[in-house]
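Dear colleagues,

For the upcoming journal club I promised to circulate an example of a predicted protein-ligand complex. I picked one with N-hydroxy-L-asparagine because it came up in last month's discussion. The inputs are reproduced below in full, followed by the predicted structure.
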Amino acid sequence: MTTRRNFIKTSAFASAALLVNKSDAAELKLHQNSFTPSKPIVLSTWNFGLKANEAAWEILIKNGKALDAVEAGVKIPEGDPTERSVGYGGRPDRDGRVTLDACIMDENANIGSVACLEFIKHPISVARAVMEKTPHVMLVGDGAFQFALSQGFKKENLLVEASEKEWQDWLKSSNYKPIVNIENHDTIGMIALDANGDLSGACTTSGMAYKMHGRVGDSPIIGAGLYVDNEIGAATATGHGEEVIRIAGCHLVVELMRQGKSPEDACKEAVGRVVNLTAKRKKNLKDIQVGFIALNKKGEYGSYCVQSGFNYAVYDANGNNLIDADYYLK
Ligand code: SD4
């Protein structure tokens, strides 16, 4: 195919035309007018979602559980040292420490989360262990690390040479100014509907580069960076965590779907809240990116974000495709 971009026609549940970005990694199949919701289906944030979706799909297509699929999916960028915003290889905080945030939620509202976790390559699996093996829902810092060791996770250095070098350069100015859409990947958030009709989600990140030590974003916070309600749908977020927390973003998106909004309209309204509060607080919207993706119980999905550049990967019966999210700042 020679065209890089194609329009998907409006469908019953994709209320606005979406731009589809042809990825070299993905066979692009247009859904035009046959955008029938199907299950299983998995969605994940940014272009590294394509590879992550493949791992999730292997489980979903064998009638596996959405919970297992989302954990396996997000482990792909977590374990990849060239992905500099998640897990191993992630950019450090301003003290040069790689601190990771992750959470997971299943169809029965079981939840597990870790925040500011160091030295463990797969925080999502530690979050799952918090969910399944403790009476709690969230462990942070050294407590999360000690728990991980007790569960057999290995202590590893997560700061790769490239990240360390960038951090050394950053120290010269020490100016904390998050870059919007950095390298087209940030947090990976993944939500899936399995063949059995159950929803689960996972979200994992190294957070904002050069953040204060101890800073926690939205990604490990159930209701902010991720939410799943098996009766209604699921949502996950990426971008500036402070803004997502401010509106309890993903819980809001799911509640808006409960009120009857399509996934895309729910994401759009949540972004509208970010926009309004940013104006109220007299901050510059151009410095902010927030993106949501959402999936409902029927397998309908959508997304919306503050500014251009956010995309997400969808793997369903139509294949594994990258979709450019519609955005507010035109
Ligand atoms: C966070 N939403 O920690 C996450 C990921 C991120 O730019 O750093 N996005 O706020």
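Two points we might discuss: Residues 186-187, 205, 207-208, 217-219, 238-241 surround N-hydroxy-L-asparagine (CB under 6 Å). Residues 36-329 form a domain with the Glutamine Phosphoribosylpyrophosphate, subunit 1, domain 1 fold (CATH 3.60.20.30).

See you all on Thursday,
B. R.
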